[in-house]
Amino acid sequence: MEQIHLTKTQYCSFNKKVVFQITLPIILFTIITLQLVKNISIKTPSNPIISTSYINNNEEQGAPPTESDTRIKKCDLYSGDWIPNMDAPYYTNETCWVIQEHQNCMKYGRPDTEFMKWRWKPNDCELPVFDPIKFFEIVKNKSMAFVGDSVARNQMQSLICLLSRVEHPLDVSTSKDDNFKRWYYQSYNFTLVILWSPYLVKTIENDPNGRTGKTFWGLHLDEADDVWKDEIDKYEYVIVSAGQWFFRPLIYYEKGQFMGCRYCEIDNLTEYSLSFGFRNAFRTAFKAILERESFKGKVYMRTFVPGHFEGGEWDHGGDCLRKRPYKSNEVKVEGETLELYTAQMEEFREGQRLAQQRGLSLQLLDMTQIMLLRPDGHPSTYGRPANLTWPSDCVHWCLPGPIDSWSDFLLLMLD
Predict the structure, then answer these.
(1) What is the pLDDT of residues 229-273, one digit of tens each?
(2) Which helix (H) or strand (E) holds 58?
(3) Residue 161: which H helix or E strand, with range?
(4) How far apart are CA 85 and CA 119, in angstroms?
(5) What is the 3-state secondary structure (H, E, C) of 113-153?
(6) Domain-by-domain residue ranges, the chain?
(7) Contact status, residue 183 vs residue 172, Cβ threshold 8 Å
(8) Could you tell me if 105 and 382 are in contact, meaning their C-beta atoms sit under 8 angstroms apart?
(9) Which residues are CB-contacts of 81 (< 8 A; sequence separation ≥ 6)?
(10) Which residues carry out catalysis?
(11) Residue 363 main-chain phi, psi, to 5 deg
(12) pLDDT digits (tens, 9 = 90+) for 19-67
């Protein structure tokens, strides 16, 4: 490069110009940056129904936000993708003995293992992997109930397996029915139960008002199921969910009166939408819990999780054979799943208003979009001996499997 030689006077003049030329852009850049920061706004998610966020109940009730509240508020936990996690799984079907046969995919010869090696990664933050010791520290001397169907039971068993790295529970059930199991962790004085209630409301099995030759369930949509309603005061944490059973033929009652149906094919009888019974069941459940003066615990609603049958319905050859998760831009919540999800979220928001009036906490475990991306995590035909010809299971989840990530979210909500 050619060198330039300056006199002393030229050098001083040149040096002032250089300083001015360097300083002016810095000042202008600083002013422009501050103005941009002042005016910047956060973009509204393209799909506000799916892109839900955690609501800080402590802040709404006047309490100062905790460190975890601040961390959570900085990002939408439920917008992201599944990424590889070579540290998983954190247990096996040999170290955890509560895995039911039809979710014990490795026992029945599933050849691939990649479905166990993923974790959920939100777009704008990290979701900590479940820490069993931290969980026990939070729930010590407390109790937790899962209210719902077999997927709720699946979730509870996943949690037990994750906790098995620290302690195995004692089975203190008063019934041999797997739908009403009760587990006790002696070192932490912590109790975990499943309360079987697939519709959340009072039901009639084989309703006589149904069509001959077809099994109907009768639902009293304005009456909570006594199975869990009368037990709820005993628990500090209650996780409520429902879903797949609402796809069955149903008869609806209100105030004890016959009012209509779903999938009933009965002449001169009002046929309601799929989401009608589902919506009303959650409305009734939230009221039963949150209006109960003696209930002082925290409630969590887990959203509906769709199955992944391809090539046919569950009873007509449908199966789930994919080996990898979808990316978030490959599939979207739509159809019946969207209908149920929308109804559930609307009732959740109403339930939150009721919770705030009573100074209680109703929080969200939004698993719909996240699990829509995991068609690879179901048992398919690997939940039974090969010589049996039951339909493929594309509703429940292998253990270990994607459902283990639900406890990552739960722990963050508890913290």
Answers:
(1) 989 999 999 999 999 999 999 999 999 999 999 998 888 889 999
(2) helix 57-60
(3) helix 150-163
(4) 6
(5) CHHHCEEEEECCCCCCCCCHHHHHHHHCCCEEEEEECHHHH
(6) 45-188+292-414
(7) yes
(8) yes
(9) 120, 121, 123, 325, 327, 328, 373
(10) 150, 393, 396
(11) -120, 165
(12) 344 344 433 333 333 333 333 232 333 333 334 454 444 444 444 445 5
For residue 11, what pLDDT is reported? 39
Cα-based torsion angle of the residue sequence 40, 42, 43, 47 in order, rounded to the nearest 10 degrees: -170
Question: CA 113 to CA 289: how far, in whole Å?
Answer: 41
Residue in this structure with the two tokens 């929308």, named with its chain if needed = 342
Q: Which structure tokens are listed for 217?
A: 């369930």
Unique residue bearing structure tokens 């209930």: 295
User: SS3 letters for 284-306?
Assistant: HHHHHHHCCCCCCCEEEEECCCC
Closest to 197 (Cα-Cα) out of 251, 161, 246: 246
* HEC secondary structure over 179-241: HHCEEEECCCCEEEEEEECCCCEEEEECCCCCCCCCCCEEEEEEEECHHHHCCHHHCCEEEEC
Q: Are the C-beta atoms of residues 220 and 259 closer than 8 Å to each other? A: no
Peptide bond before residue 400 is cis, with ω within 30 degrees of 0:
yes
Backbone angles phi, psi at 411, to 5 degrees: -60, -40
Residue 66: the pLDDT is 52
User: Hey, CA dihedral for 329, 330, 336, 341, is it positive or negative?
Assistant: negative
Tokens of 93: 């079907």
- CA proximity to 333, closest of 44, 48, 75, 127: 48
Distance CA 224, CA 283 (A): 10
Please report, as a single letter, which amino acid is at residue 11.
Y
